[in-house]
Each structure stands twice: as structure tokens, then as C-alpha cells.
Write a structure and sequence with these properties.
Layout: H1 2-14, H2 21-43, H3 59-90, H4 104-134
Helix pairs in contact: 1-2, 2-4, 3-4
Length: 135
């Protein structure tokens, strides 16, 4: 869909007709795509990880490090969610330049993506505590 809109922009320039809203719509679509997929990848635990140092630890220490990392991730998600909520509230009266889309629409996917990430990290933390207590 994004490729279609960008192609439309390029073709319209050939006919001296500019479709100025295409860049704005493409930006909005990319934002939705990125943040919703980031949330999904966190939930499925399919994001990138660097295991080089983690693989050098014993199994018990790996669990502890994973709990620590999940704690940091939960804290980061909470901070971002608070910040995005404040920003959405502050931007509720502003619109985008071309399409006149309310600016909070650009930040809703950030909020939803980080809520999904927070749920995923809380679940991972709970499972890590369960596993840690078994040993």
C-alpha cells in the first residue's frame, strides 16, 4: 500500500501534478506498521537478542539476568506509556498539515504497541519468576 502511494507521488510529478498528502499518509502507515509489529514481536519473543554474554552464564544466572532485563523493559514501557499519554493529551487540538489528521492519531500506535510490549514483558517476568523459584 505504501509503495502504491509513493509510486502515485512519483507518477504525478511527471504530469506536473503533485499529490502532497502522499508523504504524510505514508508516514502514518509506517508508524502504524512499525509499532504494532514491535509489540507483536515482543509478545512472540521474536525480536533481536544478543546472547553472546548471556551464553557464558550458568543457567541460574541466565534466569536472573533475564528477570533483570524484563524488569528494565517493564520500566521502560511504563515510562514511554506515560510520556505518550501526556503527549497525546497535549497534541489533541493539533492536526497534520496536508490531510488535517489529528496528531494524536500518529501516537496511538505507539501507545498500543507499548501496551502489547508491556503485557509481553510482564508475562515473561511472571514466567521467569515461576522458573526461578523452581530451582
Amino acid at each position: 500500500m505504501i509503495n502504491f502511494f509513493i509510486s502515485l507521488q512519483i507518477l504525478s510529478r511527471q504530469f506536473n501534478f503533485s499529490v502532497t498528502w502522499v508523504i504524510e499518509l505514508s508516514t502514518l502507515l509506517v508508524i502504524y506498521m512499525v509499532y504494532l509489529l514491535v509489540g507483536r514481536s515482543s509478545f512472540e519473543n521474536s525480536h533481536l537478542k544478543v546472547d553472546f554474554f548471556l551464553n557464558r552464564f550458568s543457567e541460574k544466572n541466565k534466569r536472573f539476568v533475564n528477570l533483570f532485563i524484563n524488569t528494565l523493559n517493564i520500566f521502560t514501557c511504563v515510562v514511554v506509556l506515560i510520556s505518550v499519554t501526556i503527549y497525546i493529551y497535549q497534541m489533541k487540538t493539533f492536526n497534520s498539515a496536508q490531510l488535517r489528521i489529528p496528531l494524536p492519531y500518529y501516537f496511538y500506535p505507539v501507545f498500543v504497541g507499548f501496551v502489547i510490549m508491556l503485557i509481553a514483558y510482564c508475562r515473561n517476568f511472571y514466567l521467569g519468576i515461576k522458573e526461578f523459584s523452581k530451582t
